Please model this.
Amino acid sequence: MEFARHRMEVEQWAANRVQSTVIGALEAQSMHVFVQMDDKWANGFRAAEETVARLSTNELLDQPRGSVQSKGQVLRSMVRGARERSAIVEKRPG
Model:
């Protein structure tokens, strides 16, 4: 149970970071562009920003809803990923 709770906390932290970074980038860009655009464009930009702000953790991290994996499933996935990365590194021309 501890592992699952920790994983959920890390996922929430990561989603918050992604969301904050995206909204920050949108706000920074808007400072330069809003003065050059019309109201229709500005309304669309604000709507896009609001959409990003409403995205859930699962949507931000591209995870299916309710996909809770066991510790074994997570570890096997990590091992598969490491093997795949290792195979790619070995195939690179030297």
Notes: The mean pLDDT is 81. Residues 2-33 form the longest helix (32 residues).
